[in-house]
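Could you join me in thinking about how sequence relates to backbone shape in a protein? We need material for that, and I hope you will provide a protein of your own picking. Once you have written the record down, we can walk along the chain together:

…
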Amino acid sequence: MAIQVSKKAARRFLLAKSGLNNYGALDSNVATALRQLECVQLDPVAIIERNHHLVFFNRLEKYNRQELERQLWEGHAFEYFANAACLLPMEDYPIFKGKIKTSEREWASKRHLYQDVERMIRQALADQGPLPSKAFASDKKVVGAWDQPTHATTKETSHVLRVLFETGAIQVCGRQGSERYFALSEDVIPAAWQQEAEAISEKEADRRLVHKYLRAYRLIDDSDPRFGWQRMTAKERKDWVDGFISDGTLTPVDIEGATGRYTVLQEEAEQLLAYEAHNERVNNAVSFLPPLDNLLWRRTRLEDLFDFTYRWEIYIPQHKRRYGPYALPILLDDQLIGRADPFFDRDHGRFSIHVHEEPSRKWSKTRAELVERGARRMGERLGAEDVRVTGVKK
């Protein structure tokens, strides 16, 4: 039987589980916080800071970038494809066995084309240990992931590094800025997790990965094409959810005014209902969410529950954009009320941010002051000496 809640209760439940705006708190330890979020999405764009750092800046009061980077260097985390390229707790390594095996099968017919380069990279990592991607130079160009089918612009070594990474042969064992350091998987994945990955079946790994997805999303709709972080047909997604409802893993949720078909983990149903039962006072917390924040992953859910449409326009030609290339949704209390276009001039220590009010939201003087104060605080936390906020109408 479905439980019934309002959009407000659904929003506050999601914020609590996401550790945002004082509705819920993540552990101050970065490793534990990463487990609570299940993963964070990685992206090299650093107009103000990289996505994974901004995710934690919004959630941890005393976040230090180096703490997250140490998770990789010290073997507490690894990188692979979940929602997209993500940082994940190391103990999850075995449940990606199915995805890695799928990649092996997909690349099998082409790997012979690069066997000499692959052998060279493997040998260098075996002999020298972790090496940066720039250590593997190549003048030869091949058709890579972002190339047109007939236009080879990718360095052969970069392409082979990608193949080796996707097929589980090598790992990203550390980062320095945008530079990735690679190592052989057997050298950096702890033996216990390697042994578990060998022992479990692909089917079991895939099942456990679906459960991880459920914990990451909290309010689930089976129309999500990324459901389970695996390739599935619409029927397969529905079958998974129907099966989870039948065995009691998931509970159906009717959200007043929402169009999606939602479910929640059975053990979290009471927490969701609690936000419906208690009409909590408004809080004044403000967050500026990076484009790939966990809360923003499912854009149709964002529209359904927050009545907010968001599109990341960084890859759209400038003349076609409505906002800047790195517009940040502004979260005040439990509502998304606008966007902010930021820019960080690191050379001069100047952080500038222009605020756009969402037309359908009412901006009072108090709300404007809260947003401006939050923007200034963000700039200061990022290390700016000069913070300039424009577009706020008081």
Q: What stands out?
A: Residues 286-390 form one domain. The chain has a mean pLDDT of 95.
